[in-house]
Every structure is written in structure tokens, then in C-alpha cells.
Amino acid sequence: MKLTSPNKLVSVSIENGELISYLKNGEELIHQKGSAGWRNSDTEMFPVIGPTSDKDYLVNTPKGNAVQDQHGILRELTYNLKNSSSNTAVFQKKYSANTIVKNSKFPEKSSAENLHWPYNFNFEKSFELTNNSLKITFNIECEKNMPFMLGYHPAFKLSGDNSEVISTSNNNISLQNIIDSGASAYPILNTSELTLVKEKGCNVNIKTSGYNNFMLWTEVPNMLCIEPITAYPYVEGKMLNKKLFNTAKETNFFEVLITPINK
């Protein structure tokens, strides 16, 4: 589906809840499927962030152990369109506690055949396109006190010449620094805003609410995943440390504002 800004000059394309295009002034801002680097354009990480194989895919919760593969069970579920307009769309994934879900990574990339989580949740992903920005919100309704981590995982298109920089209020990070950080990604902690600075085309400002951390990942110079996260999972080698999990309210709200900046 396609969303169009009120002034008809900006458009967004969404495929089954996945952001696959953001066009402004004819410039594509989103990494395109089929290009080198990653097979997707965006996804979510929930209710865990990071790999789980070192823990035999087990995540301890107050309701017992759950089986989760890397980045959680949510990505194995299918979005349904709840409602939409010319410039908005709301998608939804629902999960009933302890429902067995087949793991698409099994057996080639994982030994965990089936996944499950001991809590109900309703996960909504909303898009709102204005003339100036794209707002993506996540609304999670679940049982109070459910432990969870949340990450949003969009990929942005780059020039391919290794010239881009990530700028924060107190630091500039080169693309090569991010590539060198490897699979564990480059953490930017205790910040809710950063900017992708490019030599050509629009810079891209990303401002968040509810996360307060980012991690940056790529293995190639033509794309960069800029991922708002509730917690960086690769701390002191202690994967899935209880301190990394949020404690849910009945309703949990997160926001990502993506703003292209003309130079």
C-alpha cells in the first residue's frame, strides 16, 4: 500500500506492515530489498533483542521459561491491516499466551523448531506521513508486569562510498566504525535523537520516545540499520540479563519520528 503526504510531494510504501520505501524529492531513503546488506527493509525486535542461542533459546520469565530465537517471536507473526487513510495506516499482530509458533530459521539457521511466549499481547504498528516527516508508533497491550525488550530495526539507503556519518549531540560516528563493530552492532546509549549525515541528498534525523538507546549495524557501505532499542543486549557478556527488560504496563507506547532534512 502507498501513503501520500497532504501536499502530495512525499510518499511511503508499506508491504505487510514493513516500510519498504520513503520517497522525498525523488530520493529513496529506505534500503531496498534485493540490494546487498540485508534481505529486509524494516522489522521489529520483541519481546527480546539479540541472540538467544547461547542460552539454548530459553528466556526466563515470572511465568516460566519461554523459547525465543534471535530478536523474538514477533517477527514470526503476520501483520493484519486494522485501518488506513491516504496518509495513515495501522497494522496489528495478536498473540495468545503459549501458542506454538513455527520458527522460520529451523533447521538451517537454528535448532529451535518451535517458539512460544507465556503472555498474551496485542502489538500495533502505526504510520503517519506528513509533509515533513514519517511518524511510526508502537502500542503494546499486554498483561501488567510482563518482561519485554523492544527494538525497531529500519534500514536506510546509503551512497556506497563510505562517506556517511552518524551525528549525536556529543559525537560523530563514521560508517567504517559501525562496520568494524561487527555483529554485536555499535551502541549509542542514553540518547533519543541522532542524524544520518550524507554528502549528497537529504540528511535524516531520527527522534524517539520511549527507547533512549540506539544500536547501529551494517556489513556493507550501501545501507545502515539505525535501530532504536529499549536496551543494548551485549553488555558484559551477560545475554538476556533481567536488568535489560522493561516491566510492562497494560499499555506501552513508543514513537519514532523520521525527518528528512534538505540541505
Structural summary, described in words:
The protein has 263 residues and is mostly beta strands. Helices cover 2% and strands 46% of the residues. It has one helix spanning 175-180; strands at residues 2-4, 10-15, 18-24, 27-28, 42-45, 58-61, 64-67, 80-84, 88-95, 101-102, 114-115, 121-129, 134-142, 147-148, 151-157, 165-167, 172-174, 186-189, 193-197, 203-209, 213-217, 223-229, 246-247, 251-261. It has a 9-stranded antiparallel sheet. A hairpin with a 4-residue loop joins strand 16 (165-167) and strand 17. The longest helix is centred in the last third of the chain and has 6 residues, at 175-180. It is globular and about 50 Å long. The two termini are 29 Å apart.
User: Unreliable segments (pLDDT under 50, ≥5 consecutive)?
Assistant: none
SSE series: EEEEEEEEEEEEEEEEEHEEEEEEE
| CATH architectural label | Distorted Sandwich
Count up the domains. 1
How many E-type strands?
Answer: 24
| Shape annotation | globular
Q: Give helix % range.
A: under 10%
| First-last Cα distance | 29 Å
- Major β-sheet, in short? 9 strands, antiparallel
Structural class of the helix and strand makeup?
Answer: mainly beta
**Order of strands in the sheet with most strands:** 8-9-12-13-24-20-19-16-17
- Return the CATH class: Mainly Beta
> What percent of residues are in strands?
over 45%
List the total number of helices: 1
Radius of gyration: 18 Å
Would you give the CATH topology?
Beta-galactosidase, Chain A, domain 5
Q: Summarize model confidence as the mean pLDDT.
A: 95
